């Protein structure tokens, strides 16, 4: 396949989407991830819309059909049994009618719904589908600010690295070191059956992941208790920026559809959060930094989590600094944007979220830069993304130095992002 030949790349991307389509939802890739994942599905819907708008709306609706009574959208929905992934439904023990995990993931649904609506050829269908989704997405946003920002500072915390979607980012190392790694049931990982263990999180990280799951399960997955009871509470600038963008987009969509209350509420959340997000800016690093809410200290880690806030409506000067930083990375790397900066503590070119390039984060950074009129860098990120799939196919992630494919193969959201970059 050749990205110089976009129609071939597009056909290949559509084939990956079809292959991972389970009728009303897609799996990220077969074997490694045999269920529905939250932010994968919302971003994948953008690619699906190029094939079938109705099917794209269904992807998001299926996810929201499994919303918890308190408003949370879980990070995994276990539609059908499979033993190729750990931890499965019995380990989570959430007692939902259709089993789900008990934590959430980045809130991209509001952004995805607006983008689908704006582009819809069938506007009447899009309006009807959006009207039904709006209160559900609104309830999820409310859930975040009520349960993950108990002191009303405008920023929400993640309670588990899996919630960030950047599981083993260097950003979490310090906070994760405070999580016990003993006192949970023995377990067998399945991810390393499908992907090279050297490209995945370590055993020590999985031990901490499992301790947190068992701790929250013992608290009955009661979200009114989990935040304060968690030894891991991290304010991730990327996670917050995605939520701010989703609130902003949902407000605009609600406004267009005449849902004034939802519009006002979401706009107010975004307006309160933006100055709070700005307190995480580090002039020295030229990026935002995560904050450990338990110690109240900023986390000095040079990761993509500090660049992703460009996806939100942050000040132009911050966008420009991020654009320059991304551009500068091309002096030392062949492919951008690495999930962690080369030459800084913790960088590993092949280990998951500690260095490799991911097309979903590329897409969100490029989108934010485009909105800020930083077009040259946005185009350069798109080019790098297409070079990677040309060289190495539709992988889960890629080595930023060599472009080597890493993790799972024939990956759904990678394909969806290629469709987006080729638009
Ligand atoms: C845990 C599905 C998911 C993505 C995450 C990515 C990875 C899961 C795992 O795969 O996480 O949720 O088991 O490794 O980190 O971003 O949503 O593609």
Automatic annotation (TrEMBL):
<dbReference type="InterPro" id="IPR004888">
    <property type="entry name" value="Glycoside_hydrolase_63"/>
</dbReference>
<keyword id="KW-0378">Hydrolase</keyword>
<dbReference type="Pfam" id="PF22422">
    <property type="entry name" value="MGH1-like_GH"/>
</dbReference>
<dbReference type="GO" id="GO:0006487">
    <property type="term" value="P:protein N-linked glycosylation"/>
</dbReference>
<dbReference type="GO" id="GO:0004573">
    <property type="term" value="F:Glc3Man9GlcNAc2 oligosaccharide glucosidase activity"/>
</dbReference>
<comment type="similarity">
    <text>Belongs to the glycosyl hydrolase 63 family.</text>
</comment>
<protein>
    <submittedName>
        <fullName>Alpha,alpha-trehalase</fullName>
    </submittedName>
</protein>
<dbReference type="InterPro" id="IPR012341">
    <property type="entry name" value="6hp_glycosidase-like_sf"/>
</dbReference>
<keyword id="KW-0326">Glycosidase</keyword>
<dbReference type="InterPro" id="IPR054491">
    <property type="entry name" value="MGH1-like_GH"/>
</dbReference>
<dbReference type="InterPro" id="IPR008928">
    <property type="entry name" value="6-hairpin_glycosidase_sf"/>
</dbReference>
<feature type="domain" description="Mannosylglycerate hydrolase MGH1-like glycoside hydrolase">
    <location>
        <begin position="33"/>
        <end position="414"/>
    </location>
</feature>
<dbReference type="GO" id="GO:0009311">
    <property type="term" value="P:oligosaccharide metabolic process"/>
</dbReference>
């Amino acid at each position: 396949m050749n990205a110089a030949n976009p129609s071939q790349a597009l056909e290949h991307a559509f084939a990956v989407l079809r292959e991972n389509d389970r009728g009303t939802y897609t799996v990220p890739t077969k074997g490694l991830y045999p269920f529905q994942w939250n932010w994968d599905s919302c971003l994948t819907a953008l690619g699906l819309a190029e094939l079938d708008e109705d099917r794209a709306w269904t992807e998001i609706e299926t996810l929201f059909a499994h919303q918890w009574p308190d408003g949370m959208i879980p990070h995994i929905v276990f539609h059908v049994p499979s033993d190729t992934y750990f931890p499965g439904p019995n380990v989570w023990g959430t007692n939902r009618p259709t089993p789900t995990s008990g934590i959430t993931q980045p809130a991209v649904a509001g952004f995805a719904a607006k983008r689908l609506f704006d582009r819809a050829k069938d506007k009447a269908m899009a309006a009807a589908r959006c009207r039904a989704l709006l209160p559900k997405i609104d309830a999820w946003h409310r859930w975040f600010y009520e349960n993950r920002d108990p002191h009303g500072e405008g920023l929400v915390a993640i309670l588990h690295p899996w919630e960030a979607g950047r599981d083993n980012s260097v950003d979490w190392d310090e906070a994760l070191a405070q999580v016990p790694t003993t006192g949970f049931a023995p377990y067998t990982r399945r991810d390393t059956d499908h992907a090279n263990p050297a490209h995945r999180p370590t055993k020590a990280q999985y031990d901490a992941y499992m301790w947190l799951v068992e701790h929250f399960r013992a608290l009955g997955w009661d979200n009114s208790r989990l935040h304060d009871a968690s030894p891991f509470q991290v304010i991730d600038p990327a996670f917050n920026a995605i939520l701010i963008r989703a609130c902003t987009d949902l407000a605009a969509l609600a406004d267009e559809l005449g849902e004034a209350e939802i519009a006002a509420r979401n706009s107010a959340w975004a307006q309160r959060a933006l100055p709070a997000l700005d307190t995480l800016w580090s002039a020295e690093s030229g990026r935002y930094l995560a904050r450990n809410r338990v110690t109240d200290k900023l986390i000095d880690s040079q990761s993509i989590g500090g660049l992703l806030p460009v996806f939100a409506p942050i000040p132009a000067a911050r966008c420009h600094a991020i654009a320059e930083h991304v551009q500068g990375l091309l002096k030392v790397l062949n492919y951008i944007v690495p999930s962690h900066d080369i030459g800084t503590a913790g960088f590993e070119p092949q280990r998951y979220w500690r260095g490799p390039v991911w097309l979903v984060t590329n897409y969100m950074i490029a989108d934010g830069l485009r909105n800020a009129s930083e077009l040259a860098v946005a185009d350069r990120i798109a080019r790098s993304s297409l070079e990677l799939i040309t060289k190495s196919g539709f992988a889960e992630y890629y080595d930023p130095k060599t472009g080597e494919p890493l993790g799972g193969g024939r990956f759904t959201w990678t394909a969806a992002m290629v469709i987006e970059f080729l638009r």
